[in-house]
Design brief:
Pfam families: Bac_luciferase
Order of helices and strands: EHEHEHEHHEEEEEHEHEHHHHEHEHHE
Shape: globular
Protein name: LLM class flavin-dependent oxidoreductase
GO molecular function: monooxygenase activity; oxidoreductase activity, acting on paired donors, with incorporation or reduction of molecular oxygen
EC number: 1.-.-.-
Structural class: alpha/beta
Number of strands: 14
Organism: Gordonia hongkongensis
Length: 452
Amino acid sequence: MSRQLHLNAFVMGVGHHEAAWRHPRTDQRRLHDVNHFVELGQIAERGRLDSIFLADILAVGPNVARNTQSIFEPLTLLSAVASHTSHVGLIATASTSYNSPYSLARAFNSLDHMSGGRVGWNIVTSAQLDESRNFGGTETPAHADRYARAEEFVDVVVKLWESWDADAVVLDPEAAIFADPTRVHTIDHHGEFFSVRGPLNSPRSPQGRPVLVQAGSSEAGKELAARVAEVVFTAQRSIADGREFYDDLKARAVRHGRNPADVRILPGLVPFIADTETRALELEQEFTDLISHDYALGQLSSFFGRDLSGISLDEKLPELPPESEIEGQKSRSTLVRKLAEESDLTIRELLARLGGGRGHRSIAGTPEQIADDLIAWFDAGAADGFNIMPPYLPGGLEDFVDHVVPILQRRGVFREDYTETTLSGHYRPAPDSGVPGDREGVERDVVTTARG
């Protein structure tokens, strides 16, 4: 089998675009309808996608009058999706800053059992001040401290997941043996942040343990990803930037003693899809025209930890703290600053570029053009696949599954049917695939219009 793309559906409310809930292609009432998310899981499974992913923020966000990014707790919501699907993976975000390792390990392991081994944990450290305030804090914890805690937190969770041997459960009624106690282990962890005896009160899951996913692209984030992550979500805006990130992270994985093929890198992509490029661009503009600038300025402020609410929309981005002085979203602040400076954007233009994916790349084009774009990145060694972020739901995901996926299948870069039933099975390298990143591939001319 040739190298195959990995495709994840990153679903958020009724669409990733911040104005999605206002657009006539969506039904805003479905923001709090569990059946909406069940339908999204079924659409993703129909397209044979690896997984669906739910982000999470532990606060209402910068301007609840205009929008909020999270309504349902992800694991709870995915338990409903799990009961109506059979193959698609289920990735939930959970914070290492505002959880305990034991309760988080138990919750994820429970859903992994319930779903037949389809669960992944997106590891975040929670960078927003409002999140800290909801848990008794008065300021955003220092970036270095958050990641130090996260490193230990992940290690404890993995130890708990592995505290039962795969054959520990015996279930021998005649001998009255439920489990072999010699195969169930305390972990006796004593570290800087946690002391946990174990074992977990839940046997090992069908896939061994949930898949580890990570999305931070700061130095600390990349180190954590290189050490433990099996899937990495990232925001890269060009093939050159994507390849630089790809090569860097794979090299870090090697330094941690890992096979780089065991780390899958999936940049985010917001696709506006239509039967012509002109119509796709018009569709993108329809969403841009619905942006609430006061909400968008709140989002922009959160990247830099500075209130930008009074700034003129027709000015350029003012001088702002460098990444080294930002304790919140370090890598995202650098990405946004670079976008504004390299494209010489006004604040209004910058907010338009950020509206679809908060810094992730947006493209507008026909299904063929979208497929060309994905394959170009894939062939150039800039990605192992993509985190597809439909700007509106469910229509944007349906368009991708029904019109782009068949093209990728015909071109031999995406499976026509599932061959595995677990999430780790979807992401496991094929035996003959070697190290991902075909450097002999030539970057293709991409006719897709890149926006954002």
